[in-house]
Specification:
Layout lengths: L1 E6 L4 H12 L3 E5 L12 E2 L18 E4 L5 H4 L2 H21 L4 E5 L11 H14 L5 E6 L3 E2 L7 H13 L10 E2 H14 L3 E6 L5
Parallel strand pairs: 1-2, 1-4, 2-3, 4-5, 5-6, 6-9, 7-8
Helix pairs in contact: 1-6, 3-4
């Protein structure tokens, strides 16, 4: 049985990871630091944190980490704010957990992530992937879904329009560009964190089931 740290438990994919992890007999304890409290569960430790100023704490000592932190440029309000959430916060979580002995890290990234990408969103995702690779995790898995399917707590109009269009085109699209259910992404992340395959691995959109 393993202890798991989940960063991003209140988001679409993170919520699915939390549900799966709490139900998984291979998981002994889930540490899910959040800004707002989660529903209580016997296996859940839910520290209240500010991701901009993460505390030193004993709960960082876990076997594996799943990170699903992320936002959009529109929601963040500026390029700097977006980069803080999608780059700085995941790296801060990863550094704390690695220093405390975590051996596996599974990161929810994006289809097309590349440090040299023209679009700011994909460039930041790619830079985050690269920076995580320099932290020395024995096992690092990056999952790169395309557009996510599922109900978010907040409404994202652009994403909703894209979901409708891609839903109509679904039978004609290559698997890589189809909508990926959030639950499938969560399964891939949790499986990677628990299996902890040695080395660096990328799970592309078309491989997510």
């Amino acid at each position: 049985m393993k202890t798991l740290l989940l960063a991003g438990a209140t988001g679409l994919v993170g919520g699915e990871v939390l549900r799966l992890a709490l139900a998984d007999p291979a998981v002994k304890r889930v540490v899910a630091p959040t800004r707002r409290p989660l529903a209580a569960h016997p296996k859940l430790e839910n520290p209240s944190v500010d991701f901009a100023a993460l505390p030193a704490a004993t709960w960082w000592a876990v076997d594996a980490v799943v990170c699903t932190l992320g936002t959009t440029r529109r929601q963040a309000g500026s390029d700097a704010a977006f980069r803080r959430v999608d780059h700085d916060y995941p790296l801060a979580v990863a550094a704390q957990a690695r220093a405390a002995g975590a051996a596996a890290f599974a990161f929810n990234s994006s289809l097309g992530a590349d440090p040299q990408a023209r679009t700011f969103y994909l460039r930041v995702k790619g830079e985050t992937e690269a920076a995580l690779g320099r932290l020395g995790f024995p096992s690092l898995t990056v999952v790169r879904p395309g557009l996510l399917g599922g109900r978010r707590a907040e409404f994202r109009p652009g994403e909703r329009v894209a979901q409708i269009l891609l839903g109509l085109l679904h039978p004609l699209l290559p698997r890589r560009y189809r909508i990926v259910p959030a639950a499938a992404v969560a399964r891939a992340l949790l499986a990677a964190a628990l299996a902890a395959p040695p080395g660096r691995h990328f799970v592309e959109a078309e491989a997510i089931r």
